[in-house]
Design a protein that fits this description.
The protein is an alpha+beta fold and 138 residues long. The protein has a single domain (2-137), classed as YjbQ-like (Jelly Rolls). 25% of the residues lie in helices and 38% in strands. Strand 5 (100-106) and strand 6 (109-110) form a beta hairpin. Bound molecules: zinc ion (ZN).
């Protein structure tokens, strides 16, 4: 069995963003030389997510509005976590959107369902953060 590990780094200039990282993950698979196996992609921070869905800007706008309804950023004083920081909403948004995705690799490619793409969800940006890509297979 072969293994491959890589960290992808991001520094999102805004507080929140969704970034399509599908090409980065496929590049890791290409470099690994693994053609049959599994790839795990996970955010290495508790205020960011990795998830799979459609690369459609309307949907991303809808996510943003929905997440703000569930866990509004303001007023920051509504959260007990926000003593000396202001990112309690980001922890909750991450919880809803998830920590990681696992995707099958078949014939050296991401074995997706229809319209599936991998996203990095940033909820407390403006600093360097990373995503782990771990591939196992042969
Ligand atoms: Zn925090």
């Amino acid at each position: 069995m072969k293994t491959y590990r890589k960290e992808l780094w991001f520094e999102v200039p805004a507080r929140r963003a969704f970034i399509n990282i599908t090409p980065d993950v496929q590049q890791c698979i290409d470099k690994s030389g693994i053609t049959e196996g599994l790839v795990l992609v996970n955010a290495m921070h508790i205020t960011a997510s990795v998830f799979i869905n459609d690369d459609e800007s309307g949907l991303h706008h809808d996510y943003e509005k929905w997440l703000e309804k569930l866990a509004p950023h303001e007023p920051v004083s509504q959260y007990r976590h926000n003593v000396g920081e202001d990112n309690a909403d980001a922890h909750m948004k991450r919880q809803i959107m998830g920590r990681e995705s696992v995707i099958a690799i078949t014939d050296g490619k991401l074995d997706f369902g229809t319209w599936e793409r991998i996203f990095y969800g940033e909820f407390d940006g403006r600093r360097k953060k990373r995503v782990l890509v771990k591939i196992i297979g042969e």
